[in-house]
Amino acid sequence: MDVLITQWINAAAGKSALLDMFMIATTQYCVPLVVLLVALQWWSASDRMHVRHTCIAAGLSFVIGLGLNQIILLFVHRVRPYDAGVSHLIISPSSDWSFPSDHVTATIAIATAFLLHGIRRRGAAFLAAAGLVCVSRIYVGTYYFTDVLGGAATGASAAIAVRWLYWEGTRLDRLATGISNPQC
Fold first, then answer.
1. Is it true that the peptide bond before 100 is cis, omega within 30 degrees of 0?
2. By CB distance 3.0 to 4.6 Å, which of 6, 65, 103, 178 could disulfide with 184?
3. What is the DSSP secondary structure assignment for residue 88, as one 8-state letter?
4. Burial profile 115-152: b = 16 or more Cβ within 10 angstroms, e = fewer
5. If you ran DSSP here, which 8-state letter would residue 143 be given?
6. Can you give the residue ranges of every domain in the chain?
7. 181 pLDDT higher than 90
8. Looking at residue 32, what is its pLDDT?
9. Which residues constitute the signal peptide according to the record (predicted)?
């Protein structure tokens, strides 16, 4: 099933220059763009301290999720789908193992953090961007479908852990969210 879904999503790769350009741009620039958009939330006009807390939570989720991936990579050595003859690669090859996807982990961690902190509209926008990243990583041929699911699981797990451990209004939180705030 994993191979079939991967091949189904990757099947259009190389057939439409416009779609290829869009998917390559998504896979290359969406994560940095999402990170930039999270950073810009720091100066949010509405509910500034809650949004700042959420930005910190998103950043922690991002870092913890990617850290979890590095631990997983020590134990799971999955060959990339293009090396296994499953997908058609339309970007430069990667030198590490396939499972899980760091790009997906990063974007899902951010989207989940915003959603868990009740910032639904921004969280939904980040989730839409994460969905594009998920599809693009399979489309360009660099990941299996389950690599993307694994990345989504580590990203969401990291955000849940941060939500559980990093509380709003604590002394540390007030110190962190008060940075560059003239009212503090």
1. yes
2. 178
3. -
4. bbbebeebbeebbebbebbbebbbbbbbbbbbbbbbbb
5. -
6. 2-10+31-170
7. no
8. 96
9. none
Structure tokens given for 160: 């849940």
* pLDDT tens digits, one per residue of 95-143: 888 899 999 999 999 999 999 999 999 999 999 999 999 999 999 999 9
Residue spans of alpha helices (H) in 13-47: 17-40
pLDDT per residue over 11-64, tens digit each?
A: 999 899 999 999 999 999 999 999 999 999 888 878 888 888 999 999 999 999
> What are 64's two structure tokens?
């913890």
- Note the maximum CA span of the chain: 58
SS3 content of the chain, % helix, strand, coil (to 5): 70, 0, 30
φ, ψ at 178 (rounded to 5°)? -85, -5
> Where does residue 9 rank: exposed (0-12), middle (13-18), buried (19+ CB within 10 A)?
buried
Residue 136 and residue 85: Cα distance in Å, rounded?
18
Of 55, 74, 156, 175, residue with least CA distance to 107 = 156
What would the two tokens of residue 105 be?
A: 């982990």
